Amino acid sequence: MRTKPRLVLLLLPFSLFMALFFFSAILKSLWTSLGYYPLIGLHRLSLTYYTAALQDTAFLRTFMRTFTLAFSSTFLACLIGLGLAFLFSQQHNRWTRLMFKLSQLPVMLPHIFVVLALLQLLSQTGLIPRLLQRLGLIDQSAQFPLLVNDPGQIGILLTYLWKEVPFVIVTVTLVLRQIDLRYQKVALNLGANRWQTFWHILLPLVQPALFNAFIIIFSFTFGSYEVPYLLGNQQAELLPVYIYNLYVQHDLTQIPLLMSLNLLLSVFTIAFAGLLLQVSRWLPGGRTGGLR
Amino acid sequence: MRKIINSFIYVIWALIVLVPLALIVLLALSQRWAYPALWPTQFSSMATVLSLLTSTEVLSSLGASVALAVGTIGLTLLIAYPTAMALTYYQFPGKKWLNLLIYLPLIIPGIALLTNIDFVIIKLNLNGRYFGIIAVHSLFCLPYAIKLLSDNLKLVGPQYAAVSQNLGASHWQTFWQITVPLSKNGLQGAVMMTYIVSMTQYLATLLIGEGNYLTLSVRMFPFTQAGKYQLAAIYAIVFMLVTLVPLFLIDSWLAWQERSREAHVSIDRD
């Protein structure tokens, strides 16, 4: 069964598919970003577009803003998700099972669901300002702070938390269920307190899966268009909207610059993911791979 | 004390998850819910809601969603299954790199990947076409499908297939009668995940599909943006009906099967 032709055959569909739709796209944008774009008469290779991109302050500001938002929302999602996953797996009864089932719901629904609900709840004419006004806590709905389409990106942050905290809960819980409970019992038996058991036994076993989830969520938040488009603020634009607007202008002379931005961002997220994987490997539990 | 705090957290968490969904249901049922009313001032009649739910726009976008999801599942499994087998049962140089490569479509920022791929899709003359869209959907589903399938195949192990071969079964027979049935759990996970990922795609469907495939997720978008929350909520309801309900039913059915199998085993032991 383990013969070479068979292995080649098994790997063929994936290789063909990736070559056709993934690597060709990356290569094409690499040539274009280096200035080879015959369609508009560009034939000379140069790094002009990269230097232009790295000197573009609007782009760099947008990049920093997006990175800060993606990092903080991912970090919060992992922290809250980890806490809830541990809480739900402390006991095994009807209620904790129900909580796990509930946590699967947001994973299965698109972001636009929670966007819709947030708009109805938190916009200045939304249900919460209406309630506060009814209770006499504010006089006019305009006194309610701007929480959607706000420059502080609160609406976007809340949307991502609603979607990603459950993703972390599901990921971590599945790992926790595989862990031999005896490790915990042994530690407690040898005189460790609950905190020590968590810190020295459970966390190292869960940590690799948590880092994987962090990478997936971070990359998604960093490059996803829908939520920033619906809930973002025009004065504090985020990268995906910035790139998309540049793309749909259909200004062909902008395409090489756009492709260089795309490649810079891709290299950045890959390097960042690599860094996180290294950190995970270096932390306790990383070398054995924990349980993924 | 600890118990009270725990129950408190449970309730808060349940509310956080369920309130947005309840709001969407209410929005779909309400005819008027304008400022400053805290509760819909007027509900639509059941007939109105039903006619909205079964309008041609809703049904056609439901059809588009399901058609794309089914195609994506087929294409994803066709690629993911052999790849998972290769990654689980074979040793080869570069395997470590392949294991990382699989995740690249999830790591590269979605917007960068999509605008790059749109170029290639146009070149291949697949823009606006069914195959172009399911190919791009599959790109985002493959990492999950390969991971779920290879984890499952690792659990099953290669021994059963080896026994079947020793007993004289052909490769093909072994594959269909041993490997595939044993990886049922992995397949189920991969199919469910692919279904969800495909159903929730927005930008990929719109950009590559050039508006030819107006799925549920795509149609919800302009309504939400224009403040027509009730119409958006109607699409959301249909979306929940075709994702949550089937997935819940499959899950319960499998749990029931598992339990009845355990019951049989215990009877046999007696």
TrEMBL record, chain A:
Keywords: Cell membrane, Membrane, Transmembrane, Transmembrane helix, Transport
Organism placement in taxonomy: Bacteria, Bacillati, Bacillota, Bacilli, Lactobacillales
The protein, known as: ABC transporter permease
Transmembrane segments: 7-27, 67-88, 109-132, 152-176, 197-222, 255-277
CDD domains tied to this protein: TM_PBP2
Stored InterPro entries: MetI-like, MetI-like_sf
Keyword Methyltransferase assigned: no
Location of the protein in the cell: Cell membrane
UniProt xrefs under Pfam families: BPD_transp_1
Recorded family membership: Belongs to the binding-protein-dependent transport system permease family. CysTW subfamily.
ABC transmembrane type-1 domain residues: 63-276
Topology with respect to the bilayer: Multi-pass membrane protein
Automatic annotation (TrEMBL), chain B:
Annotated TM spans: 58-80, 100-122, 190-209, 229-250
Record's subcellular location: Cell inner membrane; Cell membrane
Mode of membrane association: Multi-pass membrane protein
Source organism, top-level taxon: Bacteria
Span of domain ABC transmembrane type-1: 62-250
InterPro entries the UniProt entry points to: MetI-like, MetI-like_sf
Keywords of this entry: Cell inner membrane, Cell membrane, Membrane, Transmembrane, Transmembrane helix, Transport
SUPFAM superfamilies, A to Z: MetI-like
UniProt xrefs under Pfam families: BPD_transp_1
Gene3D superfamilies, alphabetized: MetI-like
Record-stated family: Belongs to the binding-protein-dependent transport system permease family.
Name of this protein: ABC transporter permease
